Every structure is written in C-alpha cells, then in structure tokens.
Amino acid sequence: MIKLSRKSKMRKFNIFLFIVIVFNVTVFALPTEVTVQKTSSWVQPQKVNYDSITESYGKGSIRNYLIDRQFNTRASEAYYSYSFQALSLDGVSEISDIDISFDPTYQKLVFHEVSIVRNGKRIQQLEKNEFRIIQRETDMERKIYNGRVSAILNLKDIRINDVVEYSFTIKGQHPSFKGEFFKTMYLQYSEPTDKIAVRVLTDRNLHFNYFNEGSEPTITNLGNGLSEYKWLERNVEGVIYDDNTPSGHNSYDVVQVSTLENWEEVAKLLQPMYLLPKKPLSIVDELLANSGQDKELEITKLIRFVQDEIRYLGLEGGIESYKPSEPNLVVERRFGDCKDKSFLLATMLQQIGVEAYPMLVNTAGGEDLMLKYHSPYAFDHCVLYLNYNNTDYFVDPTIGSQGGKLEDISFPNYEYGLLMKNGEKELVNLPDADDNLIETVETFYITSMDSSVKLEVVSNYYGSTADMSRRKFQKTSLNKIEKSYLDYYAVLYPDIRLNGNIVIEDDRGDENVFIVKEYYVIDNFWMDEEVDSNLKYCDIYPLMLEDWIYVPESSKRSMPYYLGGPVRRVNTTIIDLFEPWDVEPEQLSIEGPGFKYINEVEYSKLKNKITITHDYELLERDITAQESDMFLEKHEDIKNHLHFYLNYDYNIVNPKPVNNDSTVLITVFLTVLGGIGAIFFFLYKNWSNQKMI
After folding, report:
1. What's the N-to-C CA distance of the chain in angstroms?
2. 614, 570 in Cβ contact below 8 A?
3. How many other CB atoms are found less than 10 A from the CB of residue 692?
4. What percent of the chain shows pLDDT beyond 70?
5. How far is the C-alpha of 253 from the C-alpha of 188, rounded, in Å?
6. pLDDT range class, residue 509, cuts 50, 70, 90
C-alpha cells in the first residue's frame, strides 16, 4: 500500500481547492450586485388590506397576508411579492431576514420594495448597500457545487405585530430551456394565508396538472399573441403534515404549468445535450484488454470503472446543471456528477456495441407530485439504461462498491425514468428494488451457570445491503467499527467484551454477499430475579429488529404512512446449552398492511440447543392512512414476542431449568406447590387428631 506523505496530502487538497476556486471565479466574474428599480410595467401588484391587523396570540409565529407570483415568459421575468406579520418573538426572527437565491450565470436580481407596516405607517427599509451576496452551496455535503448565490438583507428594528412587505424580480431563464416555461405553484402552505395569487403572461399554450383542490385559472386574451392566466385564492387554510409521511407525497393544493405537452417534448428538449462524442474513448480499450471477448464481463468492467474510479463531484453552475460534461474530460479529471457519470458510461458501452442511454429519474418517487409534470424539473438524478441480449438493465453509476453479476446489480426504487434517447415518448416504468436482505445468526455458548458466555455473530448481507456494508468497511477503520458493534450489544449485555477481531468475507463477484463475523465474551450473563437471588434469568432479544419494529407512533392520520420497504431482516439465535432444558416449541405468524412477521422457537433434545428465529419483512414503501392504525396495532403485538427468557432455579435440589415465562410463572408454580403442601399438612394433622380420640 502506498502511504501519502503530509506534503502529498496537502498537494492533493490544494488541487481540489484550485478546482473549486476556478469554478467560483467563473461564476463570480459576472455581476452579482442587487439592483433597485421600479416594478416592470407588465406586473399587476396585489393590494393588501391591513385594516384587520390585530394581535394574534395563539395563531402561530407568523401570519401570511400575501404570497404573489407573476411570470412573463416572453420577457423571461419572474416577479414575487410577499407580506408577513410577526405574531411572536419567533415570528420576528423568521421575517427579519430576507434571503433570495439565484444563479448569476444567467439571472439578475432586482428589488422593488422592502417596507415595514407598523400602526398604519409604512417605513421604507430598502437600501441596496445593505445586501450581502454569499455563496451558500446547500448541497456541498453531497459533493455538488451549483454556483447559486444568495442575496441576504437583515432587517432592523422588527417588532411583534409588525408587517414586513417586500417585492423583487428575477430576470433571465436557463439557457438550456430555449424559452420553454414550467413551474410548480403552491396554492396552499403550512400556515394560513389571506391571499395567494399566481399570474402567468405567455405567448405559448400552457398545460396544467392539478393536485388536491387546485383551482382553474381565469384566462384572458391580451392581444399581440399574449394570454394571461390568473389564479387567486383567499383565506387559505394551512396544512400540517402527519409525522412519517413519505417524502414524495404532496397534501397541498398545487397547480403545475408547462409549455411542454408530453414527455416526448421533454425528451426532445433535453436529449440534444446527450449526443455521443465523435472521438472514441481510448480508455475503453485499456480497460478491456484482458476480457477475453466475454461481453458481459466487458460490460461489468466498464460499470465498475465508472462507479468506483470516477469520483462523484458536481460543479453545476449555469448550463452545467443540465448538460453533462464531455466524457473525455470526465475521464481526464476522474470526477463527475450523476449525469456526467451516466453519460460517460453510456458512451463507453455504445463504443463496444451495447445499447445504452442516460435516464433521468426522481429519487423521491414518481407516483405523486412529479408523475404528470412534463418538465425537466420533474427529475433530480440521472442513471443508466442498457440492453444486452434483449434484456433491460438499470444501473446507478453514482453507487460505488456494488457487486454481483449484471442481472444482480442492485438498483434503487426510482419507479419511473425518462430515457435520453431520440424518439422517446413515455416514461419507463422501472423495476422494484431488491428485498434488502440481511440474515444474522447469533450463537450463545453456555457451558455452565457460573461461566462467562461466548457469543458469535455471523451476518450475511445481500444485494444493496452488501453494497452499503462494503462501502462502510472501506471508509471506516476496523477499530471504529468494532467499537460501534461492541456498544451496540452493550445495550443488552453491559459486561460484554471482544473475543477476537471482526472477520470479513467479501464475495463481490457472482453472489454479491458481504459476510461479517463477530466474536464476544459476556460476563455476568445471568441476572438475579428481584424476588429471590436463587432465581436466575437471561434475556435473548433480536437487537437488529429494533429500528424496524419500534415504528413511529401516529395520531389519526390523513396522509400515507412511510415504511421504507422492501426490506427483509432474518435474525436467528442459537443457544447451545450445557444440559437439557424444558422448552416448548412455538410458532407465531403476524401479518398486516405492508408487512409480515414469523417467530419460531425450536428445541433439540439431542443437541441441547434452542433455536429462535425472527423473520420480519416490509413489503411496501408506504401504506395508506387508513391502513396505518392496523399496522401500528400489529407491531404492538410483535413487541410482545421479541423477548425470550431462560430461567434457572437454584432452590430446587435437582434443578430443572424452565424457559421463556419469566419469574411470574415460577413464582406462581412455587406458590401453588406451597399451597398444596399446606392443604396436605392440614388434612394430615386433622386425620391424626381424630385417630387419637
């Protein structure tokens, strides 16, 4: 292994820093100051009635008076006007900072007004020199640098019951969209709002997509080929989301508008940015030099190269936010974002005669808000489609360390995708994700009641869980992993200690199985019952199921309940005993909305072994609000069957261990036994007295 010196590490960091600085200089070479101008003549400002301004204790932190958005597609301008009242100190904090994000490579920010309304008087607050321009890079932790900047104005002297009113225009449209217009416009928010207005001026046909109670627009022909579409909502109630609602679910009233009528038009707009380069990639021949004309092996090698050796990093300012980088450049610099990596892999595969195309997807799922939204904004990620031997395959090139044959490569549950292929007309219905399987076998070796207990744990990770575990062990030191695993078991067994290093067996090839073997010793395994120190017990509990069984509680719902499936966890516990034990076999099956659970207890008298199996499977990603009550009720039932107790009684001369009914049954048994003895003693004494008379 080559070990980098400190100087080499600093050089590597400086190269990365230079790339980021060059990117940022390119962005900030353009003017980014905030200008102040009058409102454009095409705008129709909405009036706000402040006569009803009153103290609103108990109504939340802020009151929304006005949310107004107006768009002129011909002028490529978007006008926004807001009016908020602070109802509490938290509300003062919320409305005191104005923060507007824009992309300076193709947009300009123009402010029109910033005012405070207090006791019927308007106090002007717009001073352009007070704006600060910063680059926030909200996706930096995901290695994405989009070049967007924020103009921030910190307002002075804001008090409870003040109304802050401001308006601005963002001028400019993304150059890749060629004048097309698409927008998701909310007609409802979490807070109640007095007035929500939307206005669109366009010289093109608009196509609508509604959610929940989205209203129809008022349409007016303004002449000169220009039409006006207006939505106006008053006294709109707020919507509070239920806990554990799926990220892709929308419960607001929403209208989506687009000048694109169908997915074919979306593909036509974006597909030209994915045209194959004319110059072949020389690295393809280098990578496949020893493949032996095995086409599937060649495909797998190219996938592994892009996944593992092209670092994920996105410099996505301006046009780069939708247009992928040239494949040769990506290979040269050895980094790229999702569309760079997908386009590179498609190029490499097509170079060896395999049909392959980048495909746009939405990571939040496509069944709700994005499914009918004919727009590039319907997608937030890019993956790869390929066809080999008349079989379709899907690969996410941003996921590293994947294993398995071509047909076994794990692919997330993205649901729908749009191929960047000439002539594509519809979304592709994507396959479900694999069942996310982990099988764990815990073996307790109990040699006597007075000895420490050895515990061996073998966990088999399959499919996507193998990929995730492989990445975890690659980026984390073994010492840290062993410490975290030890802490994990210490929750149940405080006196646990390591009995050897963790052993890893990684089959990244055909099977894609990642195996982790752990070795422990548990001191003080047996615990004293409170009623009698001669009564001992131990608790066997499937820790790996904790996060799945103890699901978030919920009040009466109106929204879907997120499960996170498909997922399967199988926990098998083997207890190797030093003498026979009194154990009754058990079998339990619990099924409900979106899940099933099986619990089995078996005992081998020949081997003195108890085997306990918990097989838990989530079948769906989410369930309906109506199903959630049953789901939670059934999981309460499962909780009652997770613990398995072994009990031992030193009070008995020839002790016979008993199982799984805790001290209650033991106490009852002893009480009954004592009661029967008392009855026999009473009868005996009574019979003796009668005989003496």
Report:
1. 100
2. yes
3. 5
4. 84
5. 5
6. confident
pLDDT at 684 (0 to 100): 35
Residue with tokens 């009016």: 83
Q: Read off φ and ψ for residue 166, nearest 5 degrees.
A: -150, 155
| Continuous segment of H or E residues that includes residue 463 | none
Residue whose C-alpha is closest to residue 174's, from 272, 321, 343: 321
**What pLDDT sits at residue 477?**
94
Judged against a pLDDT cut of 80, whether residue 505 lies above it is answered with: yes
By C-alpha distance, which of 312, 506, 299, 513 is closest to 400? 312
pLDDT tens track for 286-326: 999 877 778 999 999 999 999 999 999 866 555 567 889 99
Identify the CA nearest to 648 among candidates 639, 640, 657: 657
Contact 65, 85 (CB under 8 A): yes
Of 539, 514, 518, 544, the C-alpha closest to 529 is 539
Strands (E), 553-669: 561-562, 567-576, 586-592, 595-604, 609-618, 622-623, 644-649, 658-659
Beta strands at 62-72 and 453-462: parallel, antiparallel or unpaired: unpaired
Gap between the Cα atoms of 470 and 492, Å rounded: 26
The C-alpha atoms of residue 260 and residue 209 are separated, in whole angstroms, by 12
Contact 125, 114 (CB under 8 A): yes
CB 325 within 8 A of CB 300: no
**What local confidence, expressed as pLDDT, does residue 319 receive?**
58
Query: Which amino acid, one-letter code, is at 493?
Result: Y
Alpha-carbon span 128 to 96, nearest angstrom: 16
Q: How many helices (H) and strands (E) does the chain have?
A: 12, 39
**Which whole-number Å values give the CA distances from 38 to 66, 80, 111, 169, in the listed order?**
20, 13, 8, 10
- Rounded to two decimals, what is the model's pTM? 0.82
